[in-house]
Design brief:
Length: 166
């Protein structure tokens, strides 16, 4: 009988010790979560203007790639634009403008088709459609002062937009 009482007391002590250790671990984990949440809240997130500036560069590079039949580069540039638009929807949710980027999808789909078909005249038309859609979006969000045009000069002097020689 005495052994049973000792065993019960031992189990009770171990159980109570484990419970207090769990409570201690829980508080430590809560503190760690709070610390990590503060780091996330204070981490750098690009603003809408930074994404748009990146899109502007890819827009220009896309034009010069397409008119020079550099379809691999054109495909790369349109996908960079798509990625930036996805990032806007992910990182700029507090901005009402982020809800409007979906209006660009038909123009992007059109460009993807012309790039796949490797058709320069169709590419030019689809690019005009994209550019006009960009401006329609700018007007819809009261940024009509930001008027995008078809580029006349390559954005970088250190990149060739023609098809590379094999």
């Amino acid at each position: 009988m005495q052994k049973i009482i000792v065993a019960i007391l031992f189990i009770a002590v171990v159980t109570l010790g484990a419970c207090s250790q769990n409570q201690s671990n829980t508080k430590a984990l809560e503190a760690k979560v709070d610390s990590l949440q503060k780091q996330v809240n204070n981490s750098y997130k690009p603003g809408l203007g930074e994404f748009m500036s990146g899109i502007q560069v890819h827009h220009a590079k896309l034009w010069f790639a397409g008119i020079n039949s550099n379809w691999k580069l054109a495909d790369f540039e349109i996908h960079e634009i798509m990625e930036a638009l996805d990032d806007i929807q992910m990182y700029c949710t507090d901005r009402p403008e982020s809800k409007k980027v979906v209006m660009l999808q038909p123009a992007i789909d059109s460009l993807n088709k012309t790039i796949a078909a490797q058709n320069v005249p169709a590419f030019k038309n689809a690019f005009v459609f994209l550019t006009q859609t960009c401006n329609s979006c700018h007007r819809a969000v009261n940024y009509n002062f930001n008027d995008v045009v078809i580029p006349t000069t390559p954005p970088f002097s250190n990149q060739l937009f023609t098809v590379p020689k094999q």
